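May I ask for whichever protein you like with its C-alpha cells?
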Amino acid sequence: MTLQQLKYVTIVAETGTITEAANRLYISQPSLTSAIHELEKEMNIVIFNRTNKGINITKEGGDFLGYARQVLEQAAILEDKYKKNAGGKKQFCVSTQHYSFAVNAFVDLIKKYGQDEYDFSLRETQTYEIIEDVAKMRSELGILFLNDFNETVINKILKSNELKFTQLFIAKPHVFISRKHPLAEKTIITNDELEMYPYLSFEQGEHNSFYFSEEIFSASERKKNIRVRDRATLFNLLIGLNGYTVCSGVIDKKLNGKDIIAVPLADEGDMRIGYIMHKKGMLSRLGETYLESLGKYLTMSGK
C-alpha cells in the first residue's frame, strides 16, 4: 500500500468516475484501475462496486476511505512541518452549523494561507452531515453546539464514530429578529411573547430531529414553524414576516445585515459551542489557525 494508491482511491471517490479521476491525476484509465485492483487485493477488501452507470462506494470502502484520508492528511502535516517548499495545493475543509463567526474565521484563514494555490471548503450544512463529514475525514473540523437537551444523544453518536467535542465558549441564547420587529425595543424576550410570531429554523433533512436542531429546543409549543435550508432565506423571512430564530447571539452585521438584531431570550439553558474532530486525527497548522481565528471573533463578541 502506498500514499499514491490512497490518493488514487480518494480522488475516484470524489469524482465518482474512473474517467474523470484519471484525467485529474494525469494517468491512463487502465493504470488507475490496475492500481486500485492491486490495493483492494492487498487489503482484501472491495472499495468500489463497478456498474454500467459508474462506481459506488461499498460500506467497507467508505470506512477504508475515511482512514485513507486521515493518512494523507497526516502525511501532508509532516511535509508541511519538515519539508520546505513542498509544493502542491494547501487543503482544508471545515463543516459547520450556520454561524457567522465560523465564516469570518474561514475568511481569515484564506487571507493568511491562500496566496498561491489552495483548495479550501466551508460546508454550512445539517448537523448529522457535520458529524458524518468529520467521521469520514472529509472535514478536519466540525462546528456545532451541545446543551442539556441534546448532549446525551449527540455524545453517543460522537463516541460511536470516535469523535471528540472540545468546547470553545458558552453562549446565552438570543433571539434574532428584524430591527423593525414589534419586540425589537425589549432588553429581554420571553417565549410567551414570541408565541404569535413565525419561528424559523434550519431544516435537517432525512435526519430531522429535535436533537439535531441548530436552534434551542424549547418546551414551549411553537404554533407557527418555517424550515429553511440557507442563511439568506432565513434572514429575508425574519424581516418580511416578523419571524424569529434562536441562536448564540454572536452577530455580524456584514453577514447578517444591519436590519437583524440579537435580543437575549429568557428561560432557556446555555449553548456550549465547540468543535469536533477525530480522536485519531492530528490538528493541522491550517486547523490551528482556523481555531485561533474563531477564538478571536468569540472574544470580540464578548461571549
Notes: The two ends are 48 Å apart (CA to CA).
